[in-house]
C-alpha cells in the first residue's frame, strides 16, 4: 500500500480588502487541522492568496500587478511554508505569478515535505475574454491578465507517487489529464474558482454547474486510473458568489470526500496510490489498447471543422 493522507483545503471567500497576511493565517489554520488528521499533503485552491481578481476590469498594469507575486515564497507566504516544513506537510498552492522578465501566469506549485518547491504548473486553458464584455452579467478577464501557461503537463515523483497539477478550467479538458496519464500519473491536484452563476446564461443554475465540475473530474479519474483532488475557493467575494463542491475522487471515479459548505473546510482521505494499478494494467493499459494512428486531429486541429 502506498498511502498519502491528503487534505483538500477548500477556502471560503477572499475579499478585495483582505491582506495576504490575513488570508495566509487562514491557510495556516487549515494546515494545522490537516496535521492533526495525519495529512502529508494539503492542496489549496487556485489564486488562493487573493480575491478572484479577473472579475474586475483594470486598465492600469501597475494596479493589475498588485494581485501578482514576484517570488514564492515571499514575505506574506513565508509563515505558511515555515509551518508546513515544521509539520512535515507538502503543500500545493495556486497564485498569480509575475516572472522576473515580466510574464504573467496563473500558477500552481507543489512542495515536498520540507517545503521545498519541487513542481510548478502554469494554467494552460484560460477561460473568459480579454476586453470588457458588455453582454456578460460580470467579467471573466483571465485572457487579459494571464498568458497561457508554458509548462505543458509535467508530473513529479514525490511521496512514492506520480503527481501532476491542473488549474480550474483545465479540469474540463480530457486532453490535459491524458497527457499526464501517459506519464503514469497517479494523483492530479487542482484548485478552482468557479462562479456560482454562468455570466452568459443566468438560468443555468448552481446544480448543473456543480454537476459539470464533478463530472469532469470523476470521468478523468476513471479514464486515467488516477486520484483527482479538486479544491474550490468558494463563497461570496465582494458580492460575487463562487461555488464550492471540492471533492476527492478515487481511481474508479467515485467521490470519496465532498465539501458541504462554501467556507474554509478541510476534506481528508487516506489515498492508496496502489488503487491506480488495476485500471492502468487492464482496461486503461494505454500501451496495449490506444490507437494513436486515429488521434491525429487532437493535436493538428484546434476548433471544429464540419464536413461540407
Ligand atoms: N477560474 C476558472 O477557470 N473558472 C472557470 C469559469 C469558466 S466561466 C468563464 C471554470 O472553468 O470553472
UniProtKB/TrEMBL annotation:
InterPro entries: Aliph_Amidase/BUP, C-N_Hydrolase, C-N_Hydrolase_sf
PROSITE patterns the UniProt entry points to: CN_HYDROLASE
Keyword Hydrolase included in the entry's annotation: yes
Domain CN hydrolase: 4-275
Keywords: Hydrolase
Record bears the keyword Methyltransferase: no
Record-linked Pfam families: CN_hydrolase (PF00795)
Highest taxon, organism lineage: Bacteria
GO MF, any single term: hydrolase activity
Protein name according to UniProt: N-carbamoyl-D-amino-acid hydrolase
Amino acid at each position: 500500500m502506498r498511502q498519502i493522507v491528503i487534505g483538500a483545503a477548500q477556502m471560503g471567500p477572499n475579499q478585495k480588502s483582505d491582506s495576504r497576511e490575513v488570508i495566509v493565517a487562514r491557510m495556516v489554520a487549515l494546515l494545522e487541522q490537516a496535521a492533526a488528521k495525519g495529512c502529508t499533503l494539503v492542496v489549496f485552491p487556485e489564486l488562493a492568496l487573493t480575491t478572484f481578481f479577473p472579475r474586475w476590469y483594470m486598465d492600469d498594469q501597475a494596479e493589475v500587478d498588485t494581485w501578482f507575486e514576484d517570488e514564492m515564497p515571499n514575505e506574506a507566504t513565508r509563515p505558511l511554508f515555515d509551518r508546513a516544513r515544521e509539520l512535515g506537510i507538502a503543500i500545493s498552492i495556486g497564485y498569480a505569478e509575475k516572472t522576473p522578465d515580466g510574464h504573467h501566469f496563473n500558477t500552481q506549485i507543489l512542495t515536498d515535505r520540507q517545503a521545498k518547491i519541487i513542481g510548478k504548473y502554469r494554467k494552460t486553458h484560460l477561460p473568459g475574454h480579454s476586453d470588457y464584455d458588455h453582454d456578460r452579467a460580470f467579467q471573466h478577464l483571465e485572457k487579459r491578465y494571464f498568458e497561457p501557461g508554458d509548462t505543458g503537463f509535467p508530473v513529479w515523483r514525490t511521496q512514492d507517487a506520480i503527481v501532476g497539477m491542473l488549474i480550474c478550467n483545465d479540469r474540463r479538458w480530457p486532453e490535459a489529464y491524458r497527457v499526464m496519464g501517459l506519464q503514469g500519473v497517479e494523483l492530479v491536484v487542482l484548485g478552482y474558482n468557479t462562479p456560482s452563476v454562468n455570466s452568459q446564461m443566468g438560468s443555468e443554475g448552481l446544480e448543473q454547474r456543480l454537476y459539470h465540475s464533478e463530472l469532469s473530474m470523476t470521468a478523468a479519474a476513471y479514464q486515467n486510473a488516477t486520484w483527482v483532488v479538486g479544491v474550490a475557493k468558494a463563497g461570496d467575494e465582494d458580492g460575487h458568489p463562487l461555488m464550492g463542491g471540492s471533492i476527492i475522487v478515487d481511481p474508479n471515479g467515485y467521490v470519496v470526500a465532498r465539501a458541504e459548505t462554501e467556507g474554509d473546510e478541510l476534506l481528508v482521505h487516506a489515498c492508496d496510490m496502489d488503487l491506480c494499478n488495476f485500471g492502468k494494467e487492464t482496461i486503461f493499459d494505454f500501451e496495449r489498447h490506444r490507437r494513436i494512428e486515429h488521434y491525429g486531429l487532437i493535436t493538428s486541429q484546434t476548433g471544429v471543422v464540419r464536413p461540407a
